[in-house]
Amino acid sequence: MKIEKTLLISCAILCFLLITSCNKIQRPKKPNVLLICLDDLRPELKSFGAAYISSPNIDALATEGISFQKHFVNAPSCGPSRYTLLTGQYGPAGNNALFLRANKIEEGTEEINQSMPEWFRTHGYTTVSIGKVSHHPGGRGGSDWNDSTIIEMPSAWDKHLMPVAEWEHPRGMMHGLANGEIRIKSADMDVFQSVEGDDNSYPDGAITDEALKQLRALATLQENPFFLAVGIIKPHLPFGAPKSYYNTYEGVDLPRIEHPQKPEGKTTWHGSGEFMKYNRWGKDPNSNADFADEVRRHYAACVSYADAQVGKVLAELKRTGADKNTIIVLWGDHGWHLGEHAIWGKHSLFEESLHSPLIIRYPGMKSKGATTDAIVETLDIFPTLCDLTGIEMPEFAQGVSLKEIAEYPNTRGHTAVAYKNNASTIRTATHRMTLHQDGFVELYDHTSAENETKNVANKHPELVKELKNALRAKMK
């Protein structure tokens, strides 16, 4: 009897171990997520058609994933655009959008849906952010953006990090130039700069070093899947990058500036205040072609510098082996005018402010190296990541998953909307309509040579009516 009892106990233990083992096999670790955000990056990349640009690392990622050539952000400013990325919902149009959300959470008077990182954290992910992911690098408020009692995204991150190196604080990093120079008065800071030095002579070098450190730790732990967000500051103003990157563009022929004239009639044109407040040595790029080219070369240098930081992160991901089970999303938070419509900056509802790069790569994808002209928007990233990781899709997310387009790049996209405080816009495959708060309408035909230089709203009243309804329905 004792022998039989011992055999029965042994069999029970063996069965338990086998069942446990089978369950482990049936429930593999969910894929990690690596989200790379770049600030003020228009689609000025070789993989997006800018032949003169040196962007080898992002271009290499494009060959492993799918490039959304017609991705549009939902707001032409850092704060509200990142709000839509990180919440999956439309929100306020100001740069303080996420702080306003945080205030509502603290007040507790209304139910606030979880942010994307909080959603993934709730579903078993370790969430870490480095650099500029939300509007404030490091995600804190206060005069120097380092007050730990004022959190931009409550409950979102296990770690929300912002190394400052010699730039003293996150605010100093955000608008820093070489070797610790901090913006005190914009007029006293050069609008562009190029100095000898390595990547750590400018702020993104420190952000990247911290990203590599955190990536190594996350890849080693292996307990939970990770959601790692890395926010690179460049090519944001002021345009500063090590001289080696600027040297790449000396003597390079730049493409002509498309439609460089100030538009006639009522539009969302503005006087490029963010750009013009810096020291420009008395020069105006709208009237000085040589200076305009200098600005564009320095912007290009910043793009290449940012690309190098992306390359370091991707190389470390591969070195750890975590790349085999990691979804990568590379996203630009909005576009940037380089003289089009006589604007130097963002903040308009023209194409140049709203068009930014989006690349998605995930394990096992069949359409590696594909491009798609399907119109998509930033709101779609949250549901896409849920779809690709297999976690629950939140009902409150206002975008749609892009997985089908990633698998079948010829799949049709959908309309994309964006907004400022005084106007909103909708982009279709053929037109852009912008509706001002006072009812004035701009309509542009993207199938025509005039593109967004000729308002044809008066010629197409039925289309205007249709697009007004579509815009209102989408933002409802």
How do you describe this structure in short?
InterPro entries: Alkaline_phosphatase_core_sf, IDS, Sulfatase_CS, Sulfatase_N. With 476 residues, this protein is an alpha/beta fold.
Question: Approximately what portion of the residues adopt beta-strand conformation?
Answer: 15-25%
The biggest beta sheet reads: 8 strands, mixed
Amino- and carboxy-terminal Cα gap: 73 Å
Average predicted local confidence, pLDDT: 94
Query: How large is the radius of gyration?
Result: 24 Å
Annotated CATH architecture of the largest domain:
3-Layer(aba) Sandwich
Number of helical segments? Answer: 14
Please bin the fraction of helical residues. Answer: 25-40%
Overall structural domain count: 2
Please state the oligomeric state of the protein chains shown. single chain
The spatial strand order of the largest sheet comes to 7-4-9-1-11-14-2-15
In total, the number of strands is: 20
**CATH classification class of the largest domain:** Alpha Beta
The stretches of 5 or more residues where confidence is low (pLDDT under 50) are 5-26
CATH superfamily of the largest domain: Alkaline Phosphatase, subunit A
Query: What is the SS-derived class?
Result: alpha/beta
InterPro entries: Alkaline_phosphatase_core_sf, IDS, Sulfatase_CS, Sulfatase_N
Protein name: Sulfatase
Cofactor: Ca(2+)
GO molecular function: iduronate-2-sulfatase activity; metal ion binding
Structure characterization notes:
Residues 5-26 have low confidence and may be disordered. The strands form six sheets. Strands 7-4-9-1-11-14-2-15 form an eight-stranded mixed beta sheet, sandwiched between helices. The protein folds into two domains: 29-413, Alkaline Phosphatase, subunit A; 422-476, no CATH class. The protein has helices at 2-26, 56-64, 78-87, 97-107, 116-122, 170-174, 203-221, 243-247, 273-276, 289-320, 351-354, 381-389, 403-407, 461-475; strands at residues 32-38, 66-68, 71-72, 126-131, 140-141, 147-151, 159-161, 192-195, 226-232, 239-242, 326-332, 337-338, 344-345, 358-361, 370-372, 376-377, 416-419, 423-427, 431-436, 441-445. It is built from 14 helices and 20 strands. Keywords: Calcium, Hydrolase, Metal-binding, Signal. InterPro entries: Alkaline_phosphatase_core_sf, IDS, Sulfatase_CS, Sulfatase_N. GO terms for molecular function: iduronate-2-sulfatase activity; metal ion binding.
